[in-house]
Structures are given as C-alpha cells and as structure tokens.
C-alpha cells in the first residue's frame, strides 16, 4: 500500500485566502515563518474565537506560506484576487498530497477532455480508488470522507477553478499569467501548473 501521508485537514480547515494574504504581508516585512506563527498567535491576527482555532489557523497559514518562495508571496500580496486565490490553491496542493492527486488525476482530465462537470460520484470514486492503495484512506469513515470532499469543493470554488451547481462542480478554467507559469515550471512545479490549468 501507498506510504504517502494523506490527511483529512480540509474536512475542518478552510481555504484561508484572506489569512494567507495577511501572512504574506508579514513575510514581506522580513518576518520568518516561525516569527509569523508567534506574531499571529500573540496578536490573534486571524480573529478566531478559541485558542484551538487560533493555533490551527496560524499553523496552516504558516505551513502554506512555507510552500511559497518570495516571488510567489509577493504575487499573492500584490496581485488581484483571482491570481492570489489560484496561488493559494497551489500552496494548498503543495501541502496536501491527496488534494493534489485529485486535482491532477480528476480535475486536470476534465480540462483536457473539455468535460464541464465533476459529479459527486466521481469524487467518491477517487477516494475509493485511493482506499485500495492507502490503509489510511481505507480507515476513514463515510462521514469523514463526506466532510473532506465538501472541503475539496469549497477549496476549488474559492481557488477559482470551479463553481457549485447543486451537487455538481462546474469546471471553470483558470488564468495564470505567463510569467508566473514560467516561474513555477523553472522551480520544478510543472505538474502543479498542469493540475490547475490542464495542458495549456
């Protein structure tokens, strides 16, 4: 069985776009990741109502920031919402192996084949296939899988690559400026570009 570490983080942690933008601004003030975590905890930067939620938000924002280089941090901070959200989706894929595999194996194929919708049954089929490869996934309850896939849908909508139509996801081809695509490819992350944009 697969040794890749799969998690259900998206079952309870949201997309965090605005929080990551705040983290990017702190990064551009020359704060290190550990310092950003400490600062956001002390200042309750993300305005959470419990200590646990404050720890979770600070931890996951810093984890996703750690997947970005200074070039991409600056792009998220200075670009419009559409580009910033897509780069936050990239950071999410970089830190969530199963979500990346979903984007690469399911979403990308929809783009390549010009298929308009992702059905709930296709998302469940993806998880079932992974459960054959991973004991971790095989042990997830139906309720956990349901929450996780709801998190995937929300992340894709907030990331700008899909929209909700009742129980289905409508594929929404995204745009990424050429200079950012080239930067990601040069950094060795062409597969993440393909997961978001198909083979364009």
Overview of this structure, please?
Helix content is 65%, strand content 5%. It is mainly alpha-helical. It has a 3-stranded antiparallel beta sheet. Strand 2 (162-165) and strand 3 form a beta hairpin. Helix 2 packs antiparallel against helix 3 (51-65), helix 6 (97-112) packs across helix 11 (190-197) and helix 10 packs across helix 11 (190-197). The longest helix is centred in the last third of the chain and has 17 residues, at 142-158. The two termini are 33 Å apart. The model has no long low-confidence stretch (mean pLDDT 95).
What is this entry, summarized?
The chain is mainly alpha-helical. The chain is 65% helix and 5% strand.
Helix content estimate? 55-70%
Radius of gyration from CA coordinates: 17 Å
- The overall strand count is 3
The strands making up the biggest β-sheet line up spatially as: 1-3-2
Topology pattern, helix = H, strand = E: HHHHHHEHHHEEHH
Span of the ends, CA to CA: 33 Å
Largest sheet: 3 strands, antiparallel
SS summary, helix count: 11
Mean pLDDT: 95
- What overall form do the CA principal axes indicate? globular
Q: How would you classify the helix and strand content by structural class?
A: mainly alpha
Low-confidence stretches: none
- Quote the beta fraction: 5-15%
